[in-house]
Write a structure and sequence with these properties.
Elements (H helix, E strand, L loop, with lengths): L2 H4 L8 H29 L1 E3 L6 E3 L3 H7 L2 H34 L4 H9 L6 H12 L5 H8 L10 H29 L3 H9 L4 H30 L2 H7 L11 H11 L3 H24 L8
């Protein structure tokens, strides 16, 4: 057998790889690309609520959004919300992964319990924390009121935002925990032992060895968590606050739903979804362009 022939694929069927990829390609086309094209098209028209007539409006829907103070407030609120959810979920999951990696007895049970929240739907996670923190019937909510804290997220916008941030971050911790734990377990113990022999304490070993080796995992999770905060937290917010009180928890993804489904502003809602998509794409590009420079592979 010649070297050229040994480098060839073990089968010559060129159609089989395409057939294996076909289901995923169809799903991506139908549920991602086609809705995106539809959103761009609808954002250029003004439609009646029943879709019976439409009028070409060009960029008027986009111009109307940025002249709307409520939309600008929702835009700023979404940036704060995504940053808070990403920071909280990443920091807590890293802490839990470090603790679980050191556990010897009962390690499997600890890791299983930490993974369970990932199987919970976002809406269910929101309902869970709503019942826990409710000022009248919630266990923690009633305890806070009994301790003299003026706790009522149904009326206080800052408390409502804090609650949905915590609920959304709690839902994402398990996903981050899986990757951080896998990254920790892939670090050679010989490096840690050599650093300990050289006199490096636990904090210095984590700063100089563990975290740099975890940076590719942390960068990947940073991108995933920001996308999650922008797109996948609708169920949490809808279940806990429904955007209230007084729109204090209405982030961009929820405003798209409210204006399109409740307000029946099809063109304006489509324009919002296009802008939201562009924001996430821009943030992802910025992260890969600048943040990745500090990642050590």
């Amino acid at each position: 057998m010649t070297p050229a022939s040994s480098a060839q694929a073990p089968f010559s069927n060129k159609l089989l790889p395409l057939l294996l990829l076909l289901p995923q390609l169809v799903i991506t086309l139908v549920f991602f690309y086609w809705p995106s094209v539809q959103a761009v098209q609808q954002s250029l028209y003004i439609e009646d609520p029943f879709g019976l007539s439409s009028e070409f409006a060009g960029l008027k829907n986009f111009a109307a959004l940025f002249s709307d103070a409520r939309y600008v407030e929702s835009f700023v609120r979404s940036l704060f919300f995504s940053a808070a959810v990403s920071a909280l979920s990443l920091s807590l999951s890293l802490l839990l992964a470090v603790c679980a990696d050191r556990v010897v007895r009962g390690a499997t049970a600890y890791k299983t319990l930490l993974l369970l929240p990932y199987a919970i739907a976002p809406a269910l996670a929101g309902v869970t924390w709503m019942f826990v923190m409710h000022p009248s019937i919630g266990l923690m909510g009633r305890w806070l009121v009994a301790m003299g804290v003026e706790w009522n997220y149904l009326l206080n916008g800052n408390q409502a935002m804090a609650l949905v941030i915590f609920a959304a971050a709690w839902k994402q911790i398990s996903y981050n925990f899986i990757f951080f734990l896998a990254g920790l377990q892939s670090i050679p113990q010989s490096l840690m032992e050599a650093a300990a022999i050289d006199g490096a304490g636990p904090g210095k070993r984590f700063r100089d060895i563990v975290f740099p080796l975890l940076s590719p995992t942390a960068f990947f999770l940073l991108v995933v968590n920001i996308v999650y905060a922008f797109f996948e937290t609708f169920g949490v917010i809808h279940a806990v606050t429904a955007g209230g009180p007084a729109k204090s928890t209405e982030i961009l993804v929820y405003k798209v739903y409210f204006d399109g489904v409740v307000g029946l502003d099809i063109g304006g809602s489509a324009a919002q979804s296009v802008i939201l998509m562009l924001i996430v794409i821009l943030l992802t590009v910025v992260q890969f362009r600048f943040v990745e420079r500090k990642v050590h592979y």
